[in-house]
Design goal:
The structure holds 2 protein chains of 2 kinds.
Chain A (H helix, E strand, L loop, with lengths): L5 H6 L2 E3 L3 E4 L7 E8 L7 E2 L2 E2 H19 L3 E8 L13 E5 L7 H9 L9 H7 L11 E8 L9 H10 L5 E7 L6 H5 L3 E5 L2 H15 L4 E7 L11 E6 L5 E6 L11 E2 L5 E6 L5 E7 L5 E7 L2 E2 L13 E4 L5 E5 L7 E2 L5 E4 L5 E3 L17 E7 L4 E6 L5 E5 L5 E6 L1 E9 L8 E7 L5 E4 L1
Parallel strand pairs in A: 3-6, 3-8, 8-9, 9-10, 11-17, 24-30
Antiparallel strand pairs in A: 4-5, 6-7, 11-14, 12-13, 12-15, 15-16, 18-21, 19-20, 19-22, 22-23, 24-27, 25-26, 25-28, 28-29
Helix pairs in contact in A: 2-3, 2-7, 4-5
Chain B lengths: L15 H5 L11 E7 L7 E2 L2 E2 H20 L2 E7 L13 E8 L3 H10 L8 H11 L7 E7 L9 H11 L6 E5 L3 H8 L3 E5 L2 H16 L2 E8 L11 E6 L4 E6 L11 E3 L4 E6 L5 E7 L5 E7 L2 E8 L10 E6 L2 E7 L2 E6 L1 E7 L5 E8 L4 E6 L3 E6 L4 E9 L2 E7 L6 E6 L2 E9 L9 E7 L4 E5 L1
Parallel strand pairs in B: 1-4, 1-6, 6-7, 7-8, 9-15, 16-22, 23-29
Antiparallel strand pairs in B: 2-3, 4-5, 9-12, 10-11, 10-13, 13-14, 16-19, 17-18, 17-20, 20-21, 23-26, 24-25, 24-27, 27-28
The chains are: A alpha+beta, B alpha/beta.
Chain lengths: 451, 454
């Protein structure tokens, strides 16, 4: 291809760099903790002289600050309820996200900010819970925690239990906790349905309870992915795999498997709130479905992957298209760089190569054979030129049609060595003036035929 | 091999000889007649007070003169049963007395005077020998067998003659029976074109009649009937075979002046098989044709068209290869764009674009076009600035799926991709953590090239 017409070059609009790059995410997954803070009138009541409200906001700010300093990838949000309208107004939609996850909160700023709010109104627990639906950005795929701090029960006739169930149904992934400020034990069941319930009596207890929850929820969940070889040792690596959210089908992580510096196992941080499908990109892909991780623990994912590689004995610079079919003869993949595809051991590994005629090879033992080789047919070139237009076709030795030939332009085709027949009839001549030719295609020889 | 004309015309089987000769379209060409005369002892019997032998030889002499004078036929004479007496029961008693050549009537006449009837009746053995008497295979070779009785040496002459004809359909003989009774009839009827004569006059008549009929050309034409089309489909290659499926000739179907299918001339046989090299091929076994007459063969040929094309035209489109399959076998392997004449039916199509496309149960209807469109591809050029494992993923629904593995040993690679959203997932070969995996997102547009630097 020495000369390209200038017109063609100009016409081929070359687009440079229409993409963007990203490393496979900062190591740790995002953690979001949402406090739902009761700002109803009852929070004006005091414990040992201090308003419950003041105790709560002071404790929260301290904790937030402390954890910000020690934890990565952590975001806090605060939703308050019952603080905008007095009880008399009977407003049952009195809730607002006062502190958004986006903001990076300094301790004092938070405390100052919260001090400006006034606890006064109704306790619309259910409604507040419902509103959290939009607080968490679904696309963030973060690990989400809700900590509800309340001193009383629902006063707005809402049903927090129903809302809680509703949130679960909507696949709003959260881990909810409730801190009850001096709530009667008998009332526990009414709040239990929302999440894990803890009852506290004073500032220290609030502090410790929330701290405990935070410590627990912020424990890092890790995993290692082991790809076992045929002897069951995890020696296999350098294969790409993806982790997909089982429920939504959304991809969460893409990696190319690797060992760490000491040829040891590499550790991944994975959001424990999701159920994963692991897709290992062998050909065809190997899928491990519905993986549930143990929160706060190190999880070991093991895939026994019996696969091998098809060797390319005649590696040339040009691309060879290889088609891989499974035992039901369904098309699995067509590969251009087939020697680099990890082929899954199947009952029958069937490969097709589009030489003329097509070469198929079945039952190649990919895994145990020394060398899994595809025997490429030896091909040579045949050039055919027709002196006048007409009909022409080429056949194999046993007169099976291979294909029709162009009689107007010269034809160059690569054929597997062997014997072929050609039929040719000029336009206008009688059927029985069809000419028959037989030609032998030999190795390393270019054959030419003029019809 | 240097340039120049290289026409290889070498044939692998004997039938090639016929296929390579020029078509015998007109009634030119000389007939080559071999008489096989029964000289068994039973020829002593009488018809109308004349011995069968005398009647036969007399008629034969006249007829050979006629053939030579009016048809310039080459002739020969083989006789059986004339060398050994009946008591010896010599089943090999057959001899080519006069070879098949021009101007042999005199030699035949002379020989007929010299020999006499004697022995047994090895008809089948004589026919076997007769095959070689002609020298070459030629539709103009005719055997005329004159016999008064049945085969004495071979148990089942009908089966035996089938074997002979298998190897050489051209030697189906004309059998002139002399006063053959019902019992013998079945045996002789199957040997060839059989004419029974009940009196001397009829013997002569049959000879002339039989010869006339043989001379009529056996022709046929094939009408490929496609649904509502008035004109036959054409321009498809057809292999004509005998009833044992041995190829006789390979021709391209074509229409003559009046849009009528060409007449094909073949040797007088009553059954042919046809293989039409359509996609998929059609095999029609045992078609009956009328010897020495023209047969119109009509074949249902529901041809449709399968058109592979891009839905828009852009420059720089490459086109992907595809296969058309049926019942797990490949019927056709081509490249986009392409238009294929294919018989009505249901096919599976696989297109090897990236990503690949599988169409199952594509219906093609007779005399209709069926289109398969794909979007024209764009090109991706990838340049790696370091050694890495790299893979191309395409956005499918909610997530990215791997569709291509880049060659890890190549610094630069290019490939055609369908338009869409993609990413390359890559990681240095020397990486010590999976977190070194990086993603590069990009878009491919029809007819455009996207360059990616890693």
């Amino acid at each position: 291809m020495k000369r390209i017409g200038w017109g063609l070059l100009l016409a081929m609009f070359i687009q440079v760099h229409a993409g963007y790059s990203q490393a496979s995410e900062r190591k740790l997954y995002k953690r979001k903790v949402l406090f739902i803070l009761d700002g109803s009138g009852s929070m004006k009541e005091t414990w040992r002289g201090e308003r419950k409200w003041d105790i709560a906001i002071e404790t929260l700010s301290e904790l937030m600050d402390s954890f910000y300093h020690t934890e990565d990838n952590l975001y806090f949000g605060i939703r308050v309820l019952g603080h905008q309208y007095p009880k008399a107004m009977n407003n049952c939609q009195d809730t607002k996200l006062e502190l958004d996850f986006k903001d990076d909160h300094q301790k004092n700023d938070v405390h100052q900010f919260l001090k400006k709010l006034t606890p006064q109104g109704n306790t619309c627990l259910a409604y507040a819970l419902q509103s959290t639906e939009n607080d968490f950005d679904k696309l963030d795929y973060s690990q989400n925690t809700i900590i509800l701090i309340t001193d009383g029960l629902e006063t707005c006739n809402g049903d927090p239990c129903a809302v809680s169930a509703w949130l679960k149904e909507k696949n709003i992934v959260v881990s909810p906790y409730i801190i009850g400020l001096g709530i009667d034990k008998s009332k526990k069941p009414l709040l239990d349905c929302i999440g894990h319930f803890v009852d506290v009596k004073n500032k220290e207890e609030i502090y410790r309870a929330v701290e405990k929850i935070l410590k627990k929820t912020l424990r890092k969940t890790t995993a290692e992915v082991n790809l076992l070889d045929r002897n069951n040792y995890p020696t296999v690596t350098n294969i790409p795999f993806s982790l997909i959210d089982s429920k939504s089908g959304k991809e969460l992580y893409h990696f190319v498997h690797s060992f760490n510096a000491n040829k040891g196992k590499d550790t991944l941080f994975l959001n424990p709130q999701y159920q994963y499908d692991l897709v290992l990109y062998t050909s065809p892909p190997l899928i491990l479905k519905n993986i549930l991780l143990q929160e706060g623990h190190h999880n070991v994912l093991t895939l026994k992957s019996l696969f091998g590689f098809l060797e390319d004995e005649i590696y040339t610079q040009r691309k060879i298209r290889m088609v891989y079919r499974d035992s039901c003869n369904e098309l699995v993949s067509h590969m251009m760089n087939f020697s680099q595809e990890a082929i899954l051991q199947n009952n029958t590994n069937n490969f097709e190569y589009f030489s003329v005629p097509v070469k198929t090879q079945n039952n190649i033992d990919i895994v145990s054979s020394e060398k899994a080789l595809f025997k490429f047919p030896v091909q040579s070139t045949l050039k055919i030129k027709c002196q006048s237009p007409g009909q022409a076709s080429i056949y194999d030795e046993r007169w099976n049609l291979i294909k029709e030939l162009n009689t107007i332009k010269p034809v160059n085709m690569d054929l597997t060595i062997g014997i072929y027949h050609i039929l040719y009839k000029k336009n206008g001549l009688h059927s029985q003036q069809t000419k028959e030719y037989t030609i032998e295609i030999k190795e390393n020889q270019i054959s030419e035929l003029i019809l | 091999m240097s340039k120049g004309l290289l026409v290889l015309l070498f044939c692998l089987n004997m039938n090639c000889v016929h296929a390579q000769s020029l078509p015998l379209l007109t009634d030119s060409g000389v007939y080559r007649v071999l008489f096989i005369l029964d000289a068994s002892y039973s020829m002593d019997r009488r018809w109308d007070n004349e011995r069968l032998w005398d009647i036969a030889t007399r008629t034969l002499k006249e007829f050979s003169v006629y053939l030579e004078r009016f048809h310039q036929a080459e002739m020969g004479l083989r006789v059986y049963g004339h060398q050994a007496p009946l008591s010896l029961n010599d089943c090999r008693d057959t001899k080519l007395e006069v070879p098949v050549r021009k101007n042999q009537s005199r030699a035949i006449i002379k020989k007929l005077d010299e020999i006499s009837f004697k022995g047994t009746t090895p008809i089948i053995y004589s026919l076997e020998k007769a095959v070689e008497d002609f020298g070459t295979k030629n539709p103009k070779n005719i055997i005329i067998l004159i016999t008064d009785g049945e085969e004495s040496c071979v148990d089942d002459p009908c089966v035996a003659v089938k074997k002979i004809l298998e190897h050489n359909i051209y030697v189906k003989p004309i059998v002139i029976g002399m006063n053959i009774n019902d019992l013998e009839f079945n045996q002789l009827n199957c040997l060839g074109h059989f004419y029974n004569s009940f009196n001397p006059g009829q013997l002569k008549e049959n000879l002339y009649k039989a010869f006339d009929e043989v001379r009529g050309k056996t022709t046929f034409s094939i009408f490929l009937k496609n649904k509502n089309k008035q004109i036959s489909e054409t321009n498809v290659p057809i292999t004509i075979m005998d009833q044992s499926n041995r190829p006789l000739e390979h021709v391209y179907h074509s229409l003559g002046n009046n849009q009528v299918p060409d007449s094909i001339f073949i040797a007088p046989i009553d059954t042919i098989s046809l293989k039409i090299h359509s996609i998929p091929p059609v095999f029609i076994p045992k078609v009956a044709i009328k010897e020495h007459k023209h047969t119109d063969i009509s074949i249902d040929y529901p041809l449709g068209t399968l058109i592979f094309q891009f839905d828009t035209i852009t420059l720089g489109q490459i086109g992907a290869p595809f296969t058309i399959r049926q019942n797990n076998s490949i019927l056709y392997h081509g490249n986009f764009p392409d238009t294929i004449s294919i018989l009505a039916g249901v096919y599976d199509v696989e297109i090897y674009s990236l990503p690949q496309k599988i169409y199952k149960r594509v219906l093609v209807e007779a005399n209709k076009d069926r289109h398969l469109f794909i979007k024209p591809n764009g090109m991706l050029h990838v340049n790696k600035n370091f050694d890495c494992y790299a893979y191309i993923y395409k956005k499918v629904g909610q997530h990215m799926e791997k569709i291509y593995t880049l060659d890890k040993d190549k610094k630069f690679e290019r490939t055609a991709l369908d338009p869409g959203e993609y990413m390359i997932l890559y990681r240095s070969t020397k990486a010590i953590s999976m977190y070194a995996t990086k993603e590069f997102h990009f878009e491919i547009r029809s007819g455009q090239t996207t360059n990616v630097e890693l």
